[in-house]
Design brief:
Layout: H1 28-42, H2 47-56, H3 61-74, H4 79-93, H5 99-107, H6 112-124, H7 128-139, H8 150-162, H9 167-176
Helix pairs in contact: 2-3, 4-6, 5-6, 7-9, 8-9
Length: 181
């Protein structure tokens, strides 16, 4: 009868992955702090993202707000740092450019003023035409604007516009091929 509990014994307290009691069974503030540290260890979060995730996990609003204040004061949580890193990654991957950067940052809970400042600073440092050429070469290596059908050119145009590139830069690329600049 291995593995069976004798009658009358209570089951052991539920354990989480770190072999500690579940967050319902211990100090909720400590559990929220541990959860926040685990989330921040994976990647930076904006304060709004971290707040949303902690609330979804069932922590009380007062505990979450106090924790966010402490994390901000100690430097573990910084919206400016998050925004700068996110913009750098988005520009490097070609995921977003220009106004799309600002919109995505605001969607992630970054204040509109900070989002505008960070995205404007980042996009002035990067040549839009070069970024556009690099993205097209990386994502669509077989695309040749000089021999592409109108349908394919419209599809590429829409793809690049959704990424936030300006209409003028896209038209320049499509008209001149890969020799823009």
């Amino acid at each position: 009868m291995a593995g069976r509990m004798p009658r009358g014994d209570a089951p052991p307290a539920r354990q989480n992955r770190q072999t500690g009691p579940s967050h319902e069974e211990r100090d909720p503030a400590a559990a929220a702090r541990d959860c926040a540290y685990r989330l921040l260890a994976r990647r930076d979060h904006s304060a709004a993202e971290l707040r949303r995730k902690l609330l979804q996990r069932g922590f009380q609003d007062e505990i979450v707000q106090a924790l966010l204040d402490r994390l901000t004061e100690s430097g573990f949580l910084n919206d400016r740092r998050f925004a700068e890193r996110w913009v750098e990654a988005a520009l490097t991957s070609g995921r977003s450019f220009g106004p799309r950067l600002r919109m995505e940052l605001q969607r992630r809970g970054i204040a509109s003023e900070l989002a505008a400042e960070v995205s404007a600073r980042a996009t002035t440092e990067i040549d839009e035409h070069a970024a556009l050429r690099e993205l097209v070469a990386r994502k669509m290596p077989a695309f040749d604007p000089l021999t592409a059908s109108d349908r394919e050119r419209r599809r590429i145009f829409g793809y690049l516009q959704r990424r936030g590139f300006s209409t003028a830069a896209i038209i320049s690329l499509l008209r001149a091929g890969t020799e823009t600049g």
